Structure formats: structure tokens, C-alpha cells
């Protein structure tokens, strides 16, 4: 069960894809960089750049991202 949740362009060659995956009976949220397809394929190719987070750790990831966002906004980085 691979379900693409979101995808955004990183640059002219790569995209960041967030996917819900199941591996060996466990569910993971995968955040991974994908690059241009390697012919003859038309599908983008996953790279080693990324992480897989167990669904059990999703609350930790959410709170860490919220903390990072707070610091980013306080420092007016965006």
C-alpha cells in the first residue's frame, strides 16, 4: 500500500514526495527526494535522500516540526 500524500518541486530535477507506505507489516510515512526518470521508465526514481518515520512516531514528528516552525517564524526566516 503506497499512497502519495503530497509532492512538491525542489528544483528543475527533483521533487519531494511524502508517501504512506507499508513495509514488513508496519506503516511508515516516507519523506523522500525523487529525481527524473531513468529511460525507458516514465516514473520518477526515488533517491537515498529521505527518511521513513514509523506511524507510531508521527506525534513526535508533528511536535518537532511545530517547534521548528516557531523558531523559523521568530527569527523571521520566512
Task: Give an overview of the whole structure.
This protein is of the alpha+beta class. 22% of the residues lie in helices and 46% in strands. Strands 1-2-3-4 form a 4-stranded antiparallel beta sheet, with no helix packed on it. The longest helix has 17 residues, at 58-74.
Give a quick rundown of the structure.
22% of the residues lie in helices and 46% in strands. By secondary structure, the chain is an alpha+beta fold. The longest helix is centred in the C-terminal third of the chain and has 17 residues, at 58-74.
Determine the strand fraction and express it as a percent band: over 45%
**Major sheet characteristics:** 4 strands, antiparallel
The termini sit apart by 35 Å
Helix count, per DSSP? Answer: 1
Question: Given the helix and strand composition, which structural class is it?
Answer: alpha+beta
Set down the secondary structure blueprint.
Layout: E1 3-9, E2 15-23, E3 26-35, E4 45-54, H1 58-74
Structural key phrases:
flat, alpha+beta, 78 residues
Amino acid at each position: 500500500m503506497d499512497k502519495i500524500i503530497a509532492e512538491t518541486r525542489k528544483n528543475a530535477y527533483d521533487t519531494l514526495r511524502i508517501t504512506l507506505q507499508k513495509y514488513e507489516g508496519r506503516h511508515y510515512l516516507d519523506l523522500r527526494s525523487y529525481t527524473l526518470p531513468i529511460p525507458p521508465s516514465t516514473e520518477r526514481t526515488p533517491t537515498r535522500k529521505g527518511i521513513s518515520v514509523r506511524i507510531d512516531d508521527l506525534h513526535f514528528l508533528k511536535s518537532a516540526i511545530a517547534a521548528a516552525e516557531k523558531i523559523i517564524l521568530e527569527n523571521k526566516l520566512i
